[in-house]
Amino acid sequence: MKIGMMSFAHMHAYSYAQALMALPDAEIAGIYDDDATRGQQMAKDFNTTYFSDQAEFLATDIDAVIICSENNRHKEMVIAAAKAKKHILCEKPIATTVADAEEMIQTCEKEGVQLQIAFPVRFSSGMQHVKKMIDAGELGDIIAFRSTNRGQNPGGWFIDQEQSGGGAVLDHTVHMVDIMRWYLKEEVKEVYALVDSYFHNIDIDDAGILTLEFANGVIASHDPSWSRFSEYPAWGDAMIEVIGTKQTVRADAFGEHLVQYGKDKAINHVHFGFDMDFGLIQDFVHGAARGKTPSITGYDGLKAMEIALAAYESAEKKAPVYL
Fold first, then answer.
1. Does one domain contain both 188 and 88?
2. Do residues 61 and 206 both lie within one domain?
């Protein structure tokens, strides 16, 4: 498949492009980026063609696109790609408003193209093992979840409300809510949250605490934050604890690592587990090539984003929000 990259504004674009390079049945057939310096450098790094014009890029014979722009530009790029009949993998969150997400989903359905949302945590071997245990009944009935997604402040457009649509709570809630929905096959009906900036002197949230209740009565807590300092030996975590009537299990998507000690007393965490980003890209490429319904749909992206936006509303109202 010929895949085009749309923007390298999000750091995940680099690992997605590297994953494409490792797939024998895919190629990076072009890069569009409105940052010419960045786009030209990426085209050089990945041995492909740079396009400064989006329409010209979408008019080529690429089969699909991977969108890694600023969050507020997802809608524009998804709709343009859908109308050009390209299958789409869009970085999370799907959008910054429910209305935009719904329009994106509807447009892709109308144009007959696939819209998949980038939730690579689903491809963690630990997360997938827990999913198999749940489906096999090994945990019994699920009673509760406890999850965390704590990392470093990415800075740049991520801390610009207009471009990002939200801070750490939006950035680091959607992954784990998606995992909960995937495990439980139920929707959240109530959200209560505390949201603020605790770790950085910035005008956007860098942490929060969410409590959730699902339609079937399962309760959950989630801790999303940009609380890791730059010298921390690992980027962060994406952890879920699943409490069942038979047993409790815990998985961390970043937990498969060795602790490396350097001569200068530096400590580093060296990952040895399955590459989640590669799993995501492989799934997208093979699914699009076979015309399969995406494993992670636009609707999945919408429901995960909806919970994060409800958390902001709850924090502002100082009251639960019901969905």
1. no
2. no
Collapsing DSSP to helix, strand or coil, 195 comes out as strand
Task: Say how far apart CA 48 and CA 37 lie, in whole Å.
Answer: 15
Domain limits for position 162? 122-274+305-322
Q: What is the mean pLDDT of the chain?
A: 95
Same domain membership, residue 222 and residue 150 = yes
- CATH number for the domain that contains residue 252: 3.30.360.10
**Placement of tokens 């009944």 in the chain:** 137
The angle that helices 98-111 and 298-317 make with each other, rounded to 10 degrees, is: 170
Long-range own/partner contacts, residues 311-315 (CB < 8 A, 24 or more apart): 311/169, 311/173, 311/191, 311/193, 311/195, 311/208, 311/210, 312/166, 312/169, 312/170, 312/193, 312/195, 312/205, 313/191, 314/191, 314/192, 314/193, 315/193, 315/194, 315/195, 315/196, 315/208
pLDDT for 65-108, tens place per residue?
999 999 999 999 999 999 999 999 999 999 999 999 999 999 99
Using the 8-state DSSP alphabet, how is residue 85 labeled? T
Each residue's pLDDT tens digit, 262-295: 777 677 777 777 799 999 999 999 998 888 899 9
CA distance 169 to 148: 11
Output the domain CATH number for residue 36. Answer: 3.40.50.720
Q: Which three-class secondary structure state does DSSP give residue 236?
A: coil
Q: Are residues 101 and 151 in the same domain?
A: no
The answer to whether residues 29 and 105 belong to one domain is yes
d(CA 191, CA 309): 10
Looking at per-residue confidence, does 233 or 122 come out higher? Answer: 122
Q: Which long-range contacts (CB under 8 A, 24 or more apart) does 289-296 make?
A: 289/1, 289/25, 289/63, 291/114, 293/114, 294/114, 294/115, 294/116, 294/117, 295/116, 295/122, 296/116, 296/117, 296/118, 296/119, 296/122, 296/178
Is residue 99 located within the same domain as residue 196? no
